[in-house]
UniProtKB/TrEMBL annotation:
This is 2-aminoethylphosphonate--pyruvate transaminase. Residues 31-284 form the Aminotransferase class V domain. The modification N6-(pyridoxal phosphate)lysine is found at K190. It comes from Roseicella aquatilis. Belongs to the class-V pyridoxal-phosphate-dependent aminotransferase family. PhnW subfamily. It catalyses: (2-aminoethyl)phosphonate + pyruvate = phosphonoacetaldehyde + L-alanine. Involved in phosphonate degradation. It is an enzyme of class 2 (transferase). HAMAP family: PhnW_aminotrans_5 (MF_01376). Homodimer. Its EC number is 2.6.1.37. Substrate binds at R337.
Length: 372
């Protein structure tokens, strides 16, 4: 089965094989593996030794994003969230439920937020201490660019939390060039092509140290994870981790490096996205985004206008042809979504385009363009 969802992604057999063992996380053989993962991840993030630390947290992306918001935005403090997609919706809810005051900066999910919009929102409200931004919006496929937004946050003297869950490992970022970033957040199961189960924040040590006591939670406190590392060592884990996911992640990181690191991964994903975007247009379908706004992680496509189209039967028909896509959509208009990330190639995308064509024929979908 070709898994074309934007996480958890299709993995390589070597990665999955590394999970097929029993492991004691505190064992002396495993400690260097865990410490090594933290080091590799900091390097991919362009973090500086002694200035940035990798702070892993068990669980999914929302967990580590909540931990970052709780740790860095003081309780009752204000956070600006560019609100241009489904994952921004989630960040808004998550920060609000954590008791932080949210200023949502509304925007369509078909274009990135601009530096001017962020600068104006920050200038209008001096009580905002942080911006929390979705790097790649996994709902629609747009990319909010930290190279544009970071300088606006920096110029305003505020801090940035970057949800890079569906971007890190593929889209470029260097923490050394972004002193405004308190934390860059991601998981094991997206562009780094590991198994799901672990979240990571690469955080600025100065900020983590200053944030002690903010979180209002022991489980979701990045500063406690940092303090634990200082006390017990970088190979030590506070609570039981998804240790098989960590073992697999080590292999996935080595495969990332062997492929040529972030630039090579981005190039493969971009080509995946290009083949898909061009392919669905060739079938008479309407991509949700114009190519100029299309990021490399997920291609969303308007649902065809034909009344014979329904999402679940379409997903089932694709699955019978060996291609599995999401059976839900979360753009502002009805779409279906195809992930371009994971251990998949442009050739796989051509297979997917052919399967989409065959599935639409099977369902009797003739009017393929969007009902706009
Ligand atoms: C996948 C994702 C998350 C986290 O999702 P989980 O299901 O909690 O792992 C957060 N933000 C973005 C942008 C994502 O793509």
């Amino acid at each position: 089965m070709l898994l074309l969802i934007p996480g958890p992604v299709q993995t390589r057999p070597e990665t999955r094989a590394a999970a097929a063992q029993d492991i004691a996380p505190w064992d002396m053989d495993f400690r260097p593996v865990y410490a090594g993962i933290r080091e590799t991840v900091r390097q991919i993030a362009g973090g500086i030794e002694g200035e940035h630390a990798t702070l892993p947290l068990q669980g999914c992306g929302h967990f580590v994003m909540e931990a970052a918001i709780r740790t860095f935005v003081p309780a009752g403090g204000k956070v600006l969230i560019p609100h241009n997609g489904a994952y921004a919706d989630r960040a808004v809810r998550l920060a609000g439920e954590a008791g932080r005051r949210v200023v949502a900066l509304p925007g369509p999910d078909t274009r990135p937020v601009t530096a001017e919009e962020v600068a104006a929102a920050l200038a209008a409200d001096p009580a905002i201490s942080h911006v929390a931004m979705i790097h790649n919006e996994t709902g629609s496929g747009i990319v909010n660019d930290p190279e544009l937004i970071g300088p606006a946050v920096r110029a305003a003297g505020r801090r940035l939390i970057l949800d890079s869950v569906s971007a890190f490992g593929a889209l470029p970022i260097s923490l050394a060039a972004h002193p405004e970033i308190d934390a860059l957040v991601f998981t094991s199961g997206k562009c780094l092509e590991g198994l799901p189960g672990m979240g990571f924040a690469v955080a600025r040590i100065e900020s983590v140290t200053a944030a002690a006591g903010n979180a209002g939670s022991w489980s979701f406190d990045l500063s406690d994870i940092y303090q634990h590392a200082l006390r017990a060592g970088w190979g030590s884990i506070r609570f039981t981790p998804a240790v098989q996911a960590l073992a697999a992640f080590r292999v996935a990181l080595d495969l990332h490096d062997a492929e040529g690191g972030q630039p090579a991964r981005l190039a493969r994903y971009r080509e995946n996205a290009r083949v898909l975007h061009e392919g669905v247009r060739g079938l008479g379908l309407t991509p949700y985004l114009p190519w100029e706004a299309q990021g490399p992680v997920i291609v969303t496509v308007h649902q065809p206008a034909d009344p014979n189209f329904a999402l679940q039967p379409f997903v089932d028909a694709l699955k019978r042809r060996g291609v599995l896509i999401s059976n839900f959509w979360n753009t502002q208009a009805p779409t279906f979504r195809i992930g371009c990330i994971g251990a998949v190639t442009p050739e796989d995308m051509r297979t997917a385009v052919a399967a989409i064509d065959a599935a639409l024929r099977e369902l009797g979908v003739r009017r393929r363009e969007a009902a706009l």
